Structures are given as structure tokens and as C-alpha cells.
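Lab notebook, bench 4. Still working through the backlog of constructs that have no structural model yet. Next entry is a single chain of 183 residues. Request: give me the C-alpha cells for it.
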Amino acid sequence: MNWVHTILILAIAFMAVFFEAWFDGFRAIFGAQIDFLPALLVYTGVTNGRFTIFLTALCGGLWFDSLSANPLGVSVLPLLLIGLLAHRGRELLAIEHPVTQFFLGAAASGLQPLAALFILLNIGALPLLGWKSIWQWMVMVVGGGLFTPVCFALFARFHWAFDYQPIYKPTHRPDREIKRGRG
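Model written out:
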């Protein structure tokens, strides 16, 4: 695996968590904060190996929990499960289509807060739940679904910029000379 790609994924995860904590625009407009990490884990699970999935889920989850009200480590397991499920089904999915990317990201963004809520309730924490929580969950689902094709397009640009491009090789050399007749 290319280490540059893994480092770029971790850098994007760090910037996404920092942006979520810093930018209050989504919260002011929609009343909820959009979580970018499930979409990034969908991309990581579909395109990378298990080591990169584990590293992204661990670092991203700990970074997210350190800047939120969650106990440290609650977000790691749901993110890891998202990445591993995407990795397991990557051969069956038509991931080059933005509609498929949207639905995968929406499903991941919907399951991640529910799994984190399940963990919080099992460790004895009392999260604030109400009717507004359903609206916030729907905003997170749609926002995560919309960010997933953006994530795929962003990393496609990174691949184009940093990876070697294939070179077209003709079947014959253009400088060869063809001799006809006897000789």
C-alpha cells in the first residue's frame, strides 16, 4: 500500500474533525452538525486495506471524541465497523457511480450515530435525546451521503496528482524502417 495515500487519508480525517469542531455554519443553518468521518471510512474501506481502515478509524474516532462530549473511544468501534463492512463488500458494489457512493455514505452516516448511542447507553451514559434528535440524525444522514461522492472525487484528484499515470505504448516502434522486396 502506498504510504502517501494513507497519510493523505489521515490528514483529511484530522482536517474533517477539526472543521466539524471549528465551523458552526451547519449547526446554525440546519440545527445539526454533519459528521464527515463515516463517509471517509466508506472511501477508505472500499479502496484500502485493513491496516489503513483500522488506523483511520482509531485516529479519527479518538480525534472526534477528544473534541466532542463523547467519552474517549466511543466512536472508534462504529467507525471501524463501517470501514470493515465497506471493505468486505467492495467487490460487489458499483462504487464508481455517485448514486451508489451517496447511498453508502448515507447508510454509514445513519448507522454510526446509532451504534455510538448504543455504546453510550450500555456504558451508563445519559445522552440528551428528544424529537430534535430525529431531525439531527436525518441531517447527518443526508450530509454524510452528500459528502461521500465529494470524498471519492477529492481522492481521485489526489491520485491524478501524486500517482504515476499509465503510458500508452504502441504495438510497434514508430522509428522502425520497413524494407520491402528482396534483400
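Notes after review: The radius of gyration is 22 Å. The chain has one domain: 3-162. Flag for follow-up if needed.
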